[in-house]
């Protein structure tokens, strides 16, 4: 039986989902063969959808960033902007090791910063900026903190967590210090984001 | 005239000093040839002292870390432990881009984490821990912060500064947030390390 168009769409979605998991775990060391095997399709099917490893990784990155941006957009309507901001900050740090592994694999496969996927990080930064601004308006984050340095702290804690293989407790305590710094400065009414 | 032993020692010191500057600026892209040229010696002289690029980079790293450890040791006797701790934290972040570039060059030249130079980062971490403990005893840093997470924040801000090419102002504001988080939590008496 010939594969139908619905089969092809299903395969494509499954390949992407499996690839996100495989490269998020293995980085550059992971292979397209492993993706095909775990998705239950032949390697030829993977290459029909994504002619190169780089094309596959770019699609994975786009999907990954689009999901994060969607989550940020949902949180932008939250009734508790402080909780939304600190919760999303923590979510991004928890997500970072996988995302950095996918980016490493993408770069090693010849992807570079001028590729299409690279607009997505800017979109995410902007969406994160909206949550920050709302948290500041609500008095949950000091008014004098700018997106530049808050984003730098997000990138910093994320990279330290991945590089030092921080366990969950240390990561949470490091975040707690940064959150206190964001909450306790001038312009913030609440003193600690305990409930984020 | 034959080179004397004092000439050889002078050459060695100059090579090391120039190498630290050249690789701290250029990372893996810098070359031993450039070091020889700027040190005013022949490439054969460099290789007589350091038979491989890796050996040269290891010596540069050892020297770099030893200097930082020496600075930390000097600060451990400071009459203002809060100022000493926050000042050294900032100094390490300012120093990070150069140090990371040298480490990158060392790794690309075949150096790895089990090499001799790698004990030095542990020595530095320990020296940083002494300054942290003294600042906590003095009430300048919250008592509940452990070295693990404070060191993770140091690594994080350092890597973010290097990766995002943060300018001095953004770096200072990011550090200000972390310092406030370290100072304003429970167990700290002073609220802001303004004078660090």
From TrEMBL, chains A, B:
Keyword annotations: DNA-binding, Transcription, Transcription regulation
Gene3D superfamilies on file: Tetracycline Repressor, domain 2
Annotated region of DNA binding: 31-50
Domain of life: Bacteria
PROSITE patterns: HTH_TETR_2 (PS50977)
InterPro entries, per database record: Homeodomain-like_sf, HTH-type_TetR-like_transc_reg, HTH_TetR, Tet_transcr_reg_TetR-rel_C_sf, TetR_SbtR-like_C
Pfam families referenced in this protein's UniProt entry, alphabetically: TetR_C_43, TetR_N
Residues annotated as domain HTH tetR-type: 9-68
DNA-binding listed as a keyword: yes
PANTHER family, per database record: HTH-TYPE TRANSCRIPTIONAL REGULATOR BETI (PTHR30055:SF234), HTH-TYPE TRANSCRIPTIONAL REGULATOR RUTR (PTHR30055)
Protein name per Swiss-Prot or TrEMBL: TetR/AcrR family transcriptional regulator
């Amino acid at each position: 039986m010939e594969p139908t168009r619905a089969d092809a769409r299903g395969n494509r979605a499954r390949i992407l989902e499996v690839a996100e998991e495989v490269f998020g775990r293995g980085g550059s060391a992971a292979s397209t063969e492993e993706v095909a095997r775990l998705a239950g399709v032949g390697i030829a099917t993977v290459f029909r959808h994504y002619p190169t490893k780089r094309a596959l990784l770019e699609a994975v990155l786009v999907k990954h960033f689009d999901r994060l941006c969607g989550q940020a957009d949902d949180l932008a309507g939250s009734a508790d902007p402080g909780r939304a901001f600190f919760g999303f900050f923590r979510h991004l740090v928890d997500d970072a090791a996988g995302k950095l592994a996918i980016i490493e694999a993408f770069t090693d496969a010849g992807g570079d910063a001028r590729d299409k996927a690279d607009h997505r990080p800017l979109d995410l930064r902007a969406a994160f900026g909206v949550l920050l601004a709302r948290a500041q308006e609500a008095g949950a984050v000091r008014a004098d903190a700018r997106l530049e340095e808050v984003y730098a702290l997000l990138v910093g804690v994320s990279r330290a967590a991945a590089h030092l293989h921080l366990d969950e407790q240390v990561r949470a305590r490091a975040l707690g210090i940064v959150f206190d710094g964001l909450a306790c400065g001038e312009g913030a009414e609440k003193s600690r984001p305990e409930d984020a």
